[in-house]
């Protein structure tokens, strides 16, 4: 008889609840995110998708419940180098170029092997814009500049808040490729989107938040 081990959850939530003025924004929520998985977080405007990601990365504190990383209680120290959050606000310094922004990110969070900031910018289609101040880039180019961090900074769990916003068709395809490659390499992705998400390997799992 062969026994298959169940997939190990990288990230788990149990009874996770967040309140504002004593009213639940979300929860209690239970979910698990395993290596190789993509979890699509769905819900109407204001249903708490961004709030959930901010709680996971420790920018907000949950009112109840638990978050675990590899089975241990999650804190900011533990999430360092493991969880990468691409927020709706991209966290780019407007006066710096895409290349300078990436160098700052690498200085803070480290760099994957066998890739340079220049190569990452090329992959996201920003060749020729490496040295432009970010403030002079279009909205889609800014988004691409932030996406380049995914290629460079080491992390096995990606939290992507509206990664398709402002991107053209080719940019949307690029994000889908990055997500798929990351999952195929054993990473895990939690993604919010109001738009179409198309993965070559079928439907992602879904977590629905209700407003
Ligand atoms: N800084 C804040 N102060 C007070 N309330 C907030 C704050 N940020 C968000 N909220 C409220 O929390 C709720 C959840 O917001 P959140 O941004 O998580 O929703 P969302 O699902 O990401 O929405 P969208 O689809 O519009 O991006 C909303 O009712 C929102 O008004």
TrEMBL record:
SMART domains: AAA (SM00382). GO terms for molecular function: ATP binding; ATP hydrolysis activity; transmembrane transporter activity. The keyword Repeat does not apply. Keywords: ATP-binding, Cytochrome c-type biogenesis, Membrane, Nucleotide-binding, Translocase, Transport. It comes from the Bacteria. InterPro entries: AAA+_ATPase (IPR003593), ABC_transporter-like_ATP-bd (IPR003439), ABC_transptr_haem_export_CcmA (IPR005895), P-loop_NTPase (IPR027417). This is Cytochrome C biogenesis protein CcmA. Residues 11-211 form the ABC transporter domain. GO terms for biological process: cytochrome complex assembly. Gene3D superfamilies: P-loop containing nucleotide triphosphate hydrolases (3.40.50.300).
């Amino acid at each position: 008889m062969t026994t298959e081990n169940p997939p190990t959850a990288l990230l788990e939530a149990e009874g996770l609840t967040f309140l504002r003025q004593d009213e639940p924004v979300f929860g209690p929520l239970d979910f698990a995110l395993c290596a190789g998985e993509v979890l699509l977080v769905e819900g109407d405007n204001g249903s708490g998708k961004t709030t959930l990601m901010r709680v996971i990365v420790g920018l907000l504190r949950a009112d109840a419940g638990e978050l675990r990383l590899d089975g241990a209680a999650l804190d900011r120290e533990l999430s360092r180098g493991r969880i990468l959050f691409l927020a709706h606000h991209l966290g780019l310094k407007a006066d710096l170029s895409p290349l300078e922004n990436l160098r700052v990110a690498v200085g803070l969070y480290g760099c994957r092997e066998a890739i340079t900031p220049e190569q990452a910018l090329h992959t996201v289609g920003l060749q020729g814009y490496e040295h432009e101040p970010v403030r002079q880039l279009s909205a889609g180019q800014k988004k691409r500049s932030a996406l380049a961090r995914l290629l460079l900074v080491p992390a096995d769990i990606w939290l992507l808040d509206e990664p398709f916003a402002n991107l053209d068709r080719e940019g949307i395809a690029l994000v889908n490729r990055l997500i798929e490659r990351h999952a195929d390499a054993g990473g895990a992705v939690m993604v919010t989107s109001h738009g179409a998400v198309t993965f070559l390997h079928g439907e992602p799992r879904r977590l629905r938040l209700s407003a």
